[in-house]
Design a protein that fits this description.
three-stranded antiparallel beta sheet; 57% helix; rod-shaped; alpha+beta
Length: 404
């Protein structure tokens, strides 16, 4: 029976071939020439009928089919020296060669893969079962492993990298072309990608995050320790930094932005501001206002029963002045608050005076009056319990809220 399920009849021997005929009914039949030097099992169409084997007659449909026993071929390769085994593998079609190499002991498969032509090697490993490919790639030289992964399809390379020895996988990713490394890391499980990128040198990690999609970049940075996340966000481009900040957990994004604001406020004090961080802060808040309509930009704290702006607070508010000077469509709401100690009416006046202090500071720095709303709420909106000095201190504040 042939591969199509037709019954076959032996016709004769011609040269090195057994000749079989398959009857399809009527005069339509195929002639099959089986190489007698190869055991019979698997069917493969290999080309035209050899001239010395048959003369085609009118109405005859002819194919040449070679039957090979995979088990015997594997045994033949197993028992060959390296040079002969490599030659056999290189002469096979890719699908069959994959089956043969997969059937070899790992040590021999590794030797063949390190010796076979690179293009053939890469095709074989790309088509091989993941487990076998991992065993081989884990054992070959680093340069070979990098070359193989570079040539693999993205899906297969991710599967292999995720199953490999973690140290070898890291070394491979660290040496890959940036675009290939990014493709693999974006398709990996987030936690595994985080583990890899966290081990990269800072410059490499920044380059990776800068090239990823915003969604994937944010998902990975969100899992970094806060100092590392801040360092990476400051290192990428301004647009990407803002995209990543916008994709983080809100509390984490707020803490990182507060770090940036503290850095800028210190810069204002010393006269040395970081232009890139300033651009990140301004762009981030401008975007957040468009999304949320209102965002707390700054919280200013005061001493008990006082509405006086401290020198440090005045320096900190310069960042707000710079932001509003560049974003003319932004308005702000300045809201004063107090703790619960003392008379309600007194607290209400103190909270108003606190808001007014910030208002006057902004007016003195040429921020238009019509862009500022200010008022006091007394103790009505605490953000902490008033049963401790620490809590009360948090409640003695002015919130500067950006409005679209």
């Amino acid at each position: 029976m042939n591969s199509a399920g037709d019954d076959m009849s032996f016709v004769s021997d011609i040269g090195p071939y057994h000749v079989f005929a398959s009857n399809r009914g009527g005069k339509d039949f195929d002639l099959y020439y089986v190489d007698t030097t190869t055991p019979v099992r698997v069917v493969q169409l290999v080309g035209n009928v050899p001239d010395e084997a048959v003369q085609k007659s009118s109405g005859t449909h002819t194919d040449v089919v070679i039957f090979e026993d995979l088990v015997n071929v594997i045994e033949k390769v197993k028992n060959s020296d390296l040079q002969s085994a490599v030659k056999t593998i290189e002469e096979m079609d890719t699908k069959k060669a994959i089956e043969v190499v997969s059937g070899l002991e790992t040590a021999q498969a590794i030797s063949i893969m390190e010796t076979v032509a690179p293009e053939k090697r890469n095709e074989l490993l790309d088509g091989m079962e993941v487990e076998k490919a991992v065993d081989i790639i884990d054992a070959v030289s680093m340069s070979t492993a990098v070359d193989v992964i570079s040539a693999m399809s993205d899906i297969k390379s991710v599967q292999v990298i995720e199953e490999m020895d973690s140290t070898k996988a890291f070394d491979i990713l660290n040496q890959l072309d940036l675009s290939k490394a990014v493709s693999i890391l974006e398709d990996m499980e987030v936690e595994k990608a985080v583990d890899v990128i966290d081990e990269f040198a800072t410059t490499k990690a920044i380059n990776i995050i800068d090239q990823m999609t915003a969604k994937n970049a944010a998902a990975i940075v969100n899992r970094f320790e806060e100092t590392k996340a801040t360092e990476i966000i400051e290192g990428v481009g301004v647009e990407r930094a803002v995209e990543v900040l916008g994709g983080l957990d809100e509390e984490k994004a707020t803490r990182i932005v507060d770090r940036f604001k503290a850095e800028m406020e210190q810069g204002v004090e010393s006269g040395q501001t970081n232009g890139k961080v300033m651009a990140i802060i301004k762009t981030y808040f401008a975007d957040q206002v468009k999304i949320k309509e209102s965002v707390i930009f700054k919280t200013v704290y005061f001493n008990f029963n006082s509405s006086e702006l401290l020198l440090l607070t005045r320096q900190e508010l310069q960042l707000l002045v710079a932001f509003m000077s560049e974003n003319k469509d932004i308005k702000i709401e300045v809201v004063g608050h107090t703790d619960t100690i003392g008379d309600w009416d007194v607290n209400l006046k103190v909270s108003h005076d606190r808001a007014n202090e910030v208002f006057q500071f902004l007016r003195n720095n040429k921020i238009e009056r019509e862009r500022i709303i200010f008022y006091g709420k007394g103790p009505a909106s605490p953000i902490a319990l008033n049963d401790s000095e620490e809590g009360r201190q948090q409640n003695r504040r002015v919130e500067v809220i950006l409005l679209q």
